[in-house]
Amino acid sequence: MQDTLRPFEADVGRVLDIVVNSLYREREIFLRELVSNASDACDRLRYESLEEPELLGEEPELRIHILVDRGKGLLTVRDNGIGMNREDLVANLGTIARSGTARFLEALEKGGKEGLDLIGQFGVGFYAAFMVADRVVVLSRKAGEERGWIWASDGRTGYSVTEAEERPPRGTAVTLHLKEDAKEFLDPERIETIVRRYSDHITFPILLEVRPKPGDTKTKKQEPRQINSASALWTRPRNEITEEQYREFYHHVAHAFDDPYLRIHFTAEGVLSYTALLFVPALRPFDLLDPRRRHGVKLYVKRVFITDALDSLLPRYLRFVTGVVDSEDLQLNVSRETLQNNAVVARMRKALVRRILDALAEEAKAEKPDGEQADGDAGAENGKRRSWLDWWRDFGPVLKEGLIEDAENRERILALARFKTTAETGWTDLEGYLARRRPGQTAIYYISGENAEALRNHPQLEEARARGVEVLLLDDPVDEFWLPEVRAFRDAEFRSLTRGEVDLSAIPPVEEAAGEEGEAALAGAELDRLIARMKAALGDAVRDVRPSKRLRESPVCLVAEGQGLDMRLERFLLQHAQIGELSRRILEINPRHPLLRRMAEMAAGDGDGEEFDELARLLLDQARIVEGEPLPDPSAFSRRLSRFLAKGLAPA
Ligand code: ADP
Question: Which one of 16, 47, 126, 151 would you pick to mutate in the ligand 1 pocket, going by the greatest count of ligand atoms within 8 A of its CB?
Fold first, then answer.
């Protein structure tokens, strides 16, 4: 039965394009991808057979078979795993089956140059075969089914699916018609080296069989022989595993191609018995911030793969962790559905989180808060290192979600955190901040906004600066969400400089600033009258007008109500259409500023009513600009500004 040529789904075409033109310098990784798929197929059949043992039928030993046919120029990777029927072939090999691939394309679309940099972290799976083959034929029979199917493609024009005339053995055989320039992959030694390099950790036997060219007397026909060690890597003693083996295992489980930042390998015995081999990546996965991303830890029970999609195994804020957890306590026939709420899983999760946070804490501790590496060889076994601060900059936003999600580990996560700060170090941890507190200072002061550099010059910081008070500059959107939950670190409350009342008068000014203290400030009835006049002029545009305790040089600033949301959070919510409009701000005025002193004089007289109102509106708009808030009427602002400028320039 002949099938017409089907076109690839548009996205497949694009992936193939990337693969064939330039994706990998090392073409040999196609073999890793095919062996990895074959291993997954065996894993899946073994799992299915727990419930339906007859699926294993006459071939109970699961294995992967690589056949080199030197005469025909063919390389075949065959497994006796789960197999694919017609629908599976179309769905898995004709479309982008992997959500990861789809998201990769999305990222590529958006990211441009950055997207291209991401390619290195990314495995394209099956399609990698087209780097070395100009034709790929997949013959497959699904376990438990009778009919076999043939999928074939040149990787350019599309693919076809036809029924096999004879009943093939169970599982999948992927045959590559090697390109002229890829004949090196017919060399058995080369194949063996590649398998040992990338796939030694595969838990099923990988057999290599060679058929020499007819007439070739040099190459002996080789009977199938096993070329990997086929024991679960995580069950081997740590000192018998090489760095390279660990690394390749990481590449396999994580579908990532960097060197891991951290590796955590241990066996727990006692209340719970399990082995874990976990990895923390060094480079930020391109979809780290995507809430759909899930952790990449596979659950095994007594060496049998159960699932790689058990959300409850790790909290969401650790979604960058990958690896394997192999439980001795769970039942082999445990159903995937009940695992989600399983008590053993819940206990393992707790222990795993602890281990991961402890390992991260070791890294953080090995480094001084300002990013310098402390002495000692902490983490040296993991090879070339990124500094903790570097790593934190990439992964911190996700770890900070844990401050909300995981109240139990809050202190631990806070201890890992690094923040931008007005202190000279540029970055700090919270311990460091507390140690630098000024006499009389109890709270941890912060200011939050879209851009830390702009925040440094914010008017709301002026008084704090004059008193030598360090301020954290929070420019990560997630900060707005955990701060209201966390409230304090040790005995120190977090306090926003842009919300509610801030009174720093208990903290003595630093020397240079002390002189200004004496400068005449508006007070008493004069100040009251000015404020009343300003309120009348601004009406509903502000919630309140009040004298400021945080300004020094600037005339005005905006602040949010003590009970309400911080201004930045409101802007964020507005942007994401979570709220309809910003709440009204409080306008704080600087009673020492000459402009306000002059306005107080104007308020005292009866004349200049209109001019006073215009000035008040101009000041409000100015405060909005500094805060990064939209002006309700930019042309009115511009008109007022020009008018006062013209007046200022006019000859006396
Ligand atoms: P990935 O393996 O990362 O999901 P691939 O592009 O390599 O992505 O493969 C796509 C899908 O095709 C797999 O998810 C799997 O369902 C199916 N597949 C590939 N190779 C095999 C195989 N040897 N046996 C069974 N299914 C396979």
Answer: 126
How many domains does one find in the chain? Answer: 4
Which residue is closest in CA terms to ligand 1's atom 19? 37
Q: Among 461, 494, 514, where does a domain finish?
A: 514
pLDDT for res 106: 67
What value does the mean pLDDT take over residues 372-384? 44
Distance 252 CA to ligand 1 centre (A): 14
Give the per-residue SS3 of 37-74: HHHHHHHHHHHHHHHCHHHHCCCCCCCEEEEEECCCCE
| Residues 6 or more apart in contact with residue 466 via CB below 8 angstroms | 509, 510, 513, 516, 552
Distance CA 579, CA 157 (A): 49
Give the CATH number for residue 115.
Answer: 3.30.565.10
Q: How far is ligand 1, taken at its centre, from the CA of residue 37, in Å? A: 5
> Which neighbouring-strand residues pair with 207?
65, 226
Give the domain range for residue 354. Answer: 234-366
Q: In CATH, what number is assigned to the domain containing residue 242?
A: 3.30.230.80
Listed in order, strand segments (DSSP E) in 309-412 are 322-327
Nearest CA to ligand 1 atom 18: 37
pLDDT value at 41 more than 70:
yes
Per-residue pLDDT for 379 more than 50? no
Q: Which atom of ligand 1 is nearest to the CA of 98?
A: 4
Domain end residue (candidates: 514, 549, 571): 514
Q: Identify the band that residue 50 occupies on the pLDDT scale cut at 50, 70 and 90.
A: confident
Same domain, 240 and 201: no
Name 476's Cβ contacts closer than 8 Å, sequence gap at least 6.
396, 397, 400
In a domain, 486, yes or no: yes
Cα 53–chain centre separation = 40
Q: Does 549 reside within a domain?
A: yes
Q: Say if 374 falls within a structural domain.
A: no
Give 609-646 pLDDT, tens digit per residue.
889 999 999 999 999 999 989 999 999 999 999 999 99
Regarding whether 174 and 145 lie in a shared domain, the answer is yes
In a domain, 156, yes or no: yes
Shared domain for 214 and 66, answered yes or no, is yes
Indicate if 194 and 308 belong to the same structural domain: no
Residues 479 and 581 in one domain: no
pLDDT, residue 24, reads: 55
pLDDT attached to residue 513: 60
518 pLDDT above the threshold of 80: no
- Residue among 35, 86, 92, 96 whose CB has most ligand 1 atoms within 8 A, to mutate: 92
Tokens of 311: 């959300």
pLDDT band at residue 562 using 50, 70 and 90 as cut-offs: confident
Ligand 1 atom closest to residue 37's alpha carbon, by position in its atom list: 20
279: closest CA among 173, 383, 185, 140? 383
